[in-house]
Amino acid sequence: MTRAAPAGPPATGALTLSLAGLEFDGFAAALRAALARAPTGLLLDARDGPGPELNPPGALLARFGTAPPRDAAEDRARALSACLREMETSGVPVACLWSGPAFAPGWEIMLAAHARFLEGDAPASAPATGLLPGGGAVQRLARLLGVEAASALLSGSPADGAALEASGLWTRCEPGTAEALARAWLATAGVARQPWDERGYRIPGGTGATAPHAARSFALPAIAARGRGHDREPAPLALLRALYEGTQLPMDAALAREAQIAGALLAEGTALRRLRDLPILTFC
Q1: What is the DSSP letter of 102?
Q2: Pairing of the two strands 131-132 and 282-283
Q3: How many CA atoms lie within 13 A of 118 on its CB side?
């Protein structure tokens, strides 16, 4: 059942939106209602439980079965991506409070926030495996950390919270004080823009086939993915394709391309059959 989280104004003039227990459609409705109130800031609180999954396995299978029309699958991916793009381009500063693994449900929302604060011990933050493209997280992760670091994380390489803070995923990683730091950031943020929306922005470390890290970021992970899946697992290769192609485009075009790749992946059917048989995959 989809339910909307209450949003209430704290002393800073910002609004607080709890992500715990929400489905994505409920989050989208609550987010748009909050932004319509023109707050001075928005605090997304994901500390009390998992946030919304963009495409929970059960919901995907109920919506599409195991072989959806490509247009329908792509439209769904575009709608999810558009909601997060609306949040990050609204001009309202958005901070996210987080605890636990960085790649838990709701992490796509966390990446679209303008500032991200980890509450808890740094080593608690480690990547999940089995990620699929579709909500723009591939593009945001690469723009925050660089393509090489994003490729490693999306391929399942471990990284603790301290390393992710140093690389730029976390604005601050402070057990016990994350909420105070987030509210202080909101109080002084003004009109917020993502770095990738600034004129002249370039992804750290370069992109595409001529980047110094191209073999490490694309060729070697693709070979490893084919070896593990014996060419029967399209999801890891779709992730790499979204990373390779999307990082050579402006953000809006990159999000559209990632949605196209997600639509093709779902329409092909293998990923959804894997979700049915082994429901531990999540969309990003």
Answers
A1: T
A2: parallel
A3: 27
